[in-house]
Specification:
The complex is a heterodimer of chains A (about 200) and B (about 450). With about 200 residues, chain A is mostly helical. Chain A has 11 helices and no strands. The longest helix of chain B is centred in the C-terminal third of the chain and has 61 residues. The relative contact order of chain B is 0.10. The chains are: A mainly alpha (about 200), B alpha+beta (about 450).
Chain lengths: ~200, ~450
C-alpha cells in the first residue's frame, strides 16, 4: 500500500529540507502527496477546498520540518499535521458559515451538488461514488475522519489513534458508529432516489 | 441480547479480522441462518469496497503545482531572511570585535607604551611626550639646610638605635658572620634621602656622643645610592668604570639590559670605593647624566666593633689558659674535656675574627650603587612659523602614525588575550547555542504541541 523510500535516502532528503531545500522537500513529499490529497478531498468533498488544504498542509510541514527530531515515524508526523489541518479548516469554515455540517442532510446534499457540478469530479467518480462522498459529508467530522483514515486509506487502528489523539477504544467505537451511520445515510439516499 | 444484536456488535471486528476463532465461528454461523444480518454484512462489504476505491484518486496537476509553488516561495523567503540574519550577525560580531580590540589596546599596559614610544621621533605622541618631559620640573637633589638638620637629627637618633640593637644581637649571637645585623647586602633603600653635607655632620655628632669611640679609631660604614638618566649611555658607563678604577675601587657586580636603537638601555652597578675617596669619586661621576635620586648614609659601628674586639681578646686569653691546663692535665678524661672546650673557644675566635675582617672591609671600601637609565635624544620643538598647510600635512601624517601605533597596540593586545579567547569563545558559543535551543523549543512547543508526537 505504501511505497517506501530507502531509509537513508529519506533521511538525507529530510535533512536537506530542514536546511530549506525546496527541491528536496518536493521529492520527499512525492510519496505522501496522494494520501494527503485523498484525505483532504474526502473530508471536504470538493477539489478547490482540497487544494487549499493540501497547500496549507505542505506549507505547515515545510515550516515545521526543522523541528522534526525523528522521535516518531516521519509518515505519522506528516499525517498528524494533515488531520489537524483538515479539522482546523472545518472548524474555521463552520464558524464562518455559521452552519453545522454535522448530520444535516441539506448541507450534505448541497456539498454533493457542488461535487456533481465539478467537471473533473464528474469524470472521476461513478454515481455510487458520488453518493458515497455526499453521504460521507453528512457524518460528523470526527467520525468522518476516522472512517476516511480507516476505510478510504487503510490506516491501522493504532495509527489512527496516534493521528487523531484518541485512544484505541474510542477509534474503534468511532469506526463502528461511522460505518453504521454511513450505511443508513446511503440507504436513505437510495430510498429517496428510488422514490423520485 | 439477541444473536442479531450480538452480531451487529461483532460486525466491525469481523470485517477487520479481529474476532477470536470462537466469535468468528458464532458470527458466521449466525449469518448463515439470519437473512437480515447476512444482507447487512454484504452491504457493509460493498460500502467498504467503494470507500476503498475513493482512496485511489490521483492528484491533479493543478493541486501539485499549487503547493510546490507555495513551498518554493516559502523557501525563497526563508533563504533571504536567513542570509540577511547571517549577514547582520556577522557584521555585528565584527564590529564588536574591532571595538573590543581598540578599547583594550587603548587601556594597554605601560610596557607597551614604552615599547612603542621609544621609536625614533616619527609620531606626534612621542613629540608631545618629549615636550612634557622637557617642561617637567627637575626633582630637587639637595635638601634645604633647615630640613636637612631636622632630618639629620631624626636619622641620627635612628642610626644610634640601630647600632644599639646590633650590639645586643652581636653579644647574643656567637656567630657574627652576618656582621652583627648590618642588614641585607646592597640595601640601598634603608637610609632614606640625605645629602653628603648632613652625612659628615652626623658622623661628627656620633663621634662627640660616643665616649669610647673618642679614644679609638671610628668605624664608619658608608653607602651611597645614585640614580641617573643619561643621553649617552655608553659614555656614562665608561666614565663610571674608569672613575672607579682611578680612585682605587672595583666593580663588585653589574647588570645591563635594553637595546641602543630603542634608547631603552638600563644598567645597575655595585661598586666598592675606598671610603677616604668616596666624596671625590662621587664628584667625578656627577656629570655622567641627569641625577634623579641620591641617597647617602653612614653607620657608626665603632662600639660594637670594639666590643667584639674585646670579646676576642678575652677568648684568646681563655684559649691560652686552656693550653696551659692541657699541658698540666694528667687524666685522659680531663684532656678530652679541655680539648672540647678549646675547640669551642677556637671556633668562636675564628667567627669573631671573620666578623671584624668583614667590618674592616666595609669600613675601608664604601658601597656605591649606581642605576643608569638611557633616555632618547630630545627633538626640537616644531617652529611656530610653519605654514598652515604644512601644519595640516604634519597633522595628517601624525594621524596616520597614531593609527599605525594603535593598530600595533591592537595587534599586541590581541596576541595577549588570544589564550584567553581560545578558552572563552567556545564557552560563549556553547552558551548562545543552548539559549537559542531553549528559545526555539519554547516557541515550537507553543506552535506545534498538537502535531509533534
Amino acid at each position: 500500500m505504501f511505497w517506501l523510500m530507502g531509509r537513508d535516502e529519506e533521511a538525507q532528503r529530510i535533512r536537506a529540507a530542514q536546511r530549506g531545500d525546496a527541491s528536496a522537500f518536493e521529492a520527499l513529499m512525492a510519496e505522501y502527496e496522494q494520501t494527503i490529497y485523498a484525505v483532504a478531498l474526502r473530508m471536504c468533498g470538493n477539489r478547490e477546498d482540497a487544494q487549499d488544504m493540501v497547500q496549507e498542509t505542505m506549507l505547515r510541514i515545510f515550516r515545521s520540518i526543522g523541528g522534526f527530531k525523528g522521535n516518531s515515524k516521519f509518515s505519522t508526523w506528516i499525517y498528524r499535521i494533515t488531520t489537524n489541518v483538515c479539522l482546523d479548516e472545518f472548524r474555521r469554515k463552520r464558524r464562518r458559515n455559521e452552519q453545522s455540517f454535522e448530520g444535516l442532510t441539506e448541507a450534505g446534499e448541497q456539498f454533493a451538488d457542488d461535487v456533481l457540478e465539478t467537471p473533473e469530479a464528474h469524470q472521476e467518480r461513478t454515481e455510487s461514488a458520488q453518493h458515497l462522498q455526499a453521504a460521507l459529508l453528512q457524518l460528523p467530522s470526527d467520525l468522518r475522519m476516522a472512517i476516511v483514515l480507516r476505510d478510504v486509506k487503510g490506516f491501522a487502528y493504532d495509527e489512527i489513534a496516534q493521528l487523531t489523539g484518541a485512544n484505541l477504544g474510542t477509534v474503534k467505537s468511532r469506526i463502528s458508529r461511522a460505518r453504521g451511520r454511513l450505511r443508513k445515510i446511503i440507504e436513505r439516499q437510495k430510498s429517496s432516489a428510488d422514490a423520485i | 441480547m439477541t444473536s442479531c444484536d450480538k452480531c451487529r456488535e461483532m460486525l466491525r471486528g469481523y470485517l477487520d479480522g479481529e474476532l477470536s476463532q470462537e466469535d468468528t465461528a458464532f458470527f458466521e454461523n449466525h449469518v448463515q441462518q439470519c437473512t437480515e444480518c447476512a444482507q447487512e454484512l454484504t452491504k457493509m462489504r460493498e460500502m467498504l469496497n467503494e470507500l476503498h476505491e475513493l482512496g485511489d484518486t490521483p492528484v491533479p496537476d493543478a493541486v501539485h503545482e499549487a503547493w510546490t509553488k507555495a513551498v518554493r516561495a516559502e523557501a525563497g523567503d526563508k533563504h533571504k531572511k536567513r542570509s540577511k540574519r547571517q549577514w547582520m550577525r556577522g557584521l555585528s560580531y565584527a564590529a564588536a570585535a574591532i571595538a573590543l580590540l581598540f578599547v583594550g589596546s587603548l587601556l594597554g599596559s605601560p610596557a607597551e607604551e614604552t615599547l612603542l614610544a621609544n621609536e625614533s621621533g616619527s609620531n606626534g605622541y612621542y613629540a608631545s611626550d618629549q615636550e612634557a618631559y622637557n617642561s617637567a620640573p627637575e626633582p630637587p637633589v639637595d635638601i634645604p639646610k633647615t630640613g636637612q638638620d631636622l632630618y639629620g637629627e631624626i636619622l641620627g637618633s635612628a642610626l644610634m638605635d640601630e647600632a644599639a640593637e646590633e650590639e645586643q644581637s652581636f653579644a647574643d649571637d656567637a656567630d657574627g658572620g652576618s656582621g652583627g645585623g648590618y642588614g641585607a647586602e646592597g640595601g640601598s633603600g634603608e637610609y632614606g634621602a640625605q645629602s653628603r653635607a648632613f652625612e659628615s655632620e652626623a658622623t661628627a655628632d656620633k663621634a662627640d656622643t660616643e665616649s669610647t669611640a673618642q679614644k679609638q679609631e671610628a668605624k664608619i660604614i658608608r653607602e651611597a645610592y645614585l640614580y641617573f638618566t643619561c643621553l649617552e649611555f655608553t659614555d656614562a658607563v665608561d666614565t663610571l668604570k674608569s672613575s672607579t678604577e682611578n680612585f682605587g675601587g672595583y666593580l663588585e657586580y653589574s647588570t645591563e639590559s635594553g637595546f641602543p636603537e630603542n634608547y631603552n638601555r638600563y644598567g645597575e652597578y655595585h661598586l666598592r670605593i675606598p671610603s677616604d675617596k668616596l666624596n671625590d669619586f662621587l664628584a667625578s661621576i656627577e656629570g655622567i647624566g641627569k641625577k634623579r635620586q641620591e641617597n647617602i648614609g653612614s653607620r657608626d659601628v665603632s662600639e660594637s666593633y670594639y666590643d667584639t674586639k674585646t670579646r676576642l681578646e678575652t677568648l684568646r686569653a681563655q684559649y691560652a689558659r686552656l693550653q696551659e691546663l692541657m699541658a698540666q692535665a694528667e687524666k685522659v678524661s680531663a684532656l678530652i674535656e679541655i680539648e672540647e672546650k678549646m675547640t669551642e673557644v677556637l671556633y668562636e675566635i675564628e667567627s669573631l675574627e671573620a666578623s671584624l675582617r668583614n667590618i674592616d672591609n666595609r669600613v675601608a671600601y664604601s658601597q656605591v650603587y649606581v642605576e643608569l637609565t638611557e633616555e632618547a635624544p630630545i627633538k626640537e620643538p616644531v617652529v611656530a612659523t610653519e605654514s598652515f598647510g604644512d601644519r595640516i600635512t604634519r597633522a595628517f601624517y601624525q594621524g596616520i602614525n597614531t593609527l599605525k601605533v594603535n593598530a600595533q597596540r591592537a595587534l599586541l593586545y590581541l596576541i595577549r588575550i588570544a589564550p584567553t579567547l581560545v578558552v572563552l569563545i567556545p564557552l560563549i558559543i556553547i552558551a548562545i547555542l543552548i539559549i537559542r535551543r531553549i528559545y526555539k523549543k519554547h516557541k515550537k512547543a507553543g506552535k506545534n504541541h498538537d502535531e509533534e508526537l
